[in-house]
Design goal:
Shape: globular
Distance between the termini: 26 Å
Radius of gyration: 18 Å
Number of helices: 11
Structural class: alpha/beta
Largest sheet: 8 strands, mixed
Length: about 280
């Protein structure tokens, strides 16, 4: 599948997810009203956090983690959420940085942006701005953001190197990269990886964890850490794989424990300069 086709599929998926929420359904993995979410997208936010945001923001969550619970956010900081969807992590972050801070949400899907702005109005926050754009081409200036967060979105990009270069560019020196994402661990047969990735995040191009580290380092980041938050077992995937005409039992040794949600941290060095071209961070 080419880069353009991947982007079109992702836009269609997330646009439909936003429309389902506005019609009273759930966004997660093709769910319709009354169906449940998969093990990746469920039970990520506690009741206290849920009480701080509109219900529609929670229903629109398609994440694999909770970066706002794990990232260190300080009053007065500027935060950027890559692939902000219905705005759940933006709205939660806005409360943590306070009225002197600012949170941007970046999304390429009109339906999600409309839902996010509606949720912003319901939440009554004033330090939030939702931007239309692609995470490979962030519409913000160099050295303008203190923290970048994201929730299971970077794995959807067909050009992850561009995403990480752009993240490095817009972060201030000393700025923090703090995202939740799906990663893989170890080698597996390509056909098994392809089949399981239909389940992991519904549409995914998850990186192997060592490759993720290497790409962050190539973009210029330091202090890279990958902290598993959920490791997926075969029983988590069984019901999703069984409908694909596969011998689920034979896949168990190849799948068990090799897919995980992780919190990924990195820092833009204080001495770093922003990239001025497509290869200067390599």
């Amino acid at each position: 599948m080419g880069d353009t086709n991947i982007k079109e599929v992702v836009m269609e998926k997330y646009g439909n997810a936003a429309l389902r929420v506005t019609s009273g359904g759930s966004s997660c993995c093709g769910a319709s009203p009354g169906t449940s979410c998969d093990p990746i997208t469920s039970n990520l936010y506690d009741a206290t956090q849920a009480g701080q945001i509109p219900e529609e923001a929670m229903l629109a969550s398609l994440g694999c983690g909770n970066p706002t619970a794990l990232a260190k956010l300080n009053a007065g900081e500027t935060v950027l959420d890559l692939g902000s969807g219905g705005g759940i992590d933006v709205l939660l972050s806005a409360r943590r940085v306070g009225p002197t801070g600012k949170v941007y949400g970046l999304d390429m899907t009109d339906e999600m942006l409309a839902l996010a702005n509606a949720n912003k109005a319901k939440a009554g926050v004033t330090n939030v701005e939702f931007l239309k754009g692609e995470i490979e081409h962030i519409p913000l200036p160099d050295n303008s953001v203190d923290v970048i967060i994201s929730n299971c979105v970077i794995n959807l990009s067909a050009d992850k190197d561009a995403v990480l270069r752009e993240a490095f560019r817009v972060l201030k020196p000393g700025g923090r990269f703090a995202v939740s994402d799906v990663v893989t661990r170890g080698e597996m047969l390509p056909e098994i990886r392809k089949s399981v990735l239909l389940w992991v995040g519904c549409i995914a191009g998850a990186l192997e964890e060592t490759e993720y580290r290497n790409k962050l380092a190539a973009a210029g980041f330091g202090d890279v850490e990958i902290e598993p938050t959920r490791v997926y077992k075969m029983e988590d995937a069984r019901e999703f794989l069984s409908g694909q005409g596969l011998d689920v039992d034979s896949l168990a040794p190849q799948v068990d424990g090799k897919f995980l949600s992780a919190f990924i941290r990195a820092v833009k060095p204080v001495s770093a300069k922003s990239c001025c071209g497509p290869s200067c961070c390599n």
